[in-house]
Amino acid sequence: HRSFVCTHVENVASFYRDVLGFQSSPRPDLGVPGFWLKRMDLSFQIHLVEGTAPTRKQNWTSLSFSMGARELKRCEAMLRSRGLCYRKRSVEGRVQLQFRDPLKNLVVISSKLNSKQEFSNFT
What contacts 79, CB < 8 A, 6 or more positions away? Predict the structure, then answer.
């Protein structure tokens, strides 16, 4: 999983649910507000914790994670329809869509898949 500290956990959780298809997952009382979100088809979770996030320069190499996609054109159309700014790049023979989440973390959707990174239900 990836954990992110953020001041607006509701907004960030909505982004991951609405844009990337994550679902809320049960979370124990940890003494601080937050969300656990998961993608069953990816065996991947994002843990959001409310707090003051450290400031960092926004660039294309800061905190990131990557997922694979069967239909990259469909993913690109969804990003465009939501008005999200993204970059389309070719890296080592793979086409990638790179964009920022509300916390300025880099999210990469790649055309090349392996058995554990299949992003089959991108909505």
Answer: 86, 97, 99
